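WARN retry 2 of 3 for item q-0093 after timeout on previous attempt; input resubmitted unchanged.
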Amino acid sequence: MNEYRTVRPEALPLNEGVQILNSNQDGLVAVEKPTGALSHPNKPEDSRRSILKANYDYENEYFFWEDEDGRECRVWLVNRLDSPTSGVMLLALNEPLNDIVKYNFATHKVSKFYYALVKNLPKKQAAIWQDDLRKDVIVGKRRIKKLRKITAKTSYQLVTKPIGGFPISLLRLSPVTGRTHQLRVQCKKHGHPIVGDRTYGHFAFNKEVALESGERRMMLHCAETVVNYNYKGKVCCFQAKSEMPEAFHKVLNFRPGMKLPKQASADSTAVSKTLKDRRFKEG
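OK item q-0093 returned
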């Protein structure tokens, strides 16, 4: 018997701006994380900034809190997004399901698609980036910087070209591997830093975009996650989508000398329609 109480998706203590995108009867839940929110609290006092208003067990990677009857509730964090990245994240309402779906993430059997506003126009409409990245390794009490070489692989497709505003492009990115900061690092490495990225971005350009458009967030958004898994003898497919944020449209539609009021203009509407059910194959 469980030592914790299984909760329903509607009973999750969501923080401000977090909303449920999809859930299923197995206990898999997709939530939309706003930019700036933490996937989990880094310290107990960070709980007001994380996706759930709850404590967090760092070793076992689950949120926990007590319900009105004093019983402990637990929810497992299946995957994470960087704080400045918005979009789809997955939670599991029971441990066996969490272990199964996490294994699929670890073995690259989950499809994830991101929107990114990047500087400049790629030479090709679509391609695959494959790079050797360097990772720090901890030996004993010492951290040896960039000791280990790891391969990162991402496919991209150009969605929108620059048309008179900032020299930016809208890309749809699909990471094949799952390295830390992979998309941000690879975009920079290939000459297309993500707009608003304060770590790997083009800082002077970020400042220009912020001053002209008023948008300071990092323009990276997890728009879709698809996971196929086996659970209790059944093959299941779970899918969750999140629309491209309004901030992306605002920056895309910026034109020098024009104010950007409420309008998401005809261009923005056309882009939204194109994006809505668009799919593409790698390569």
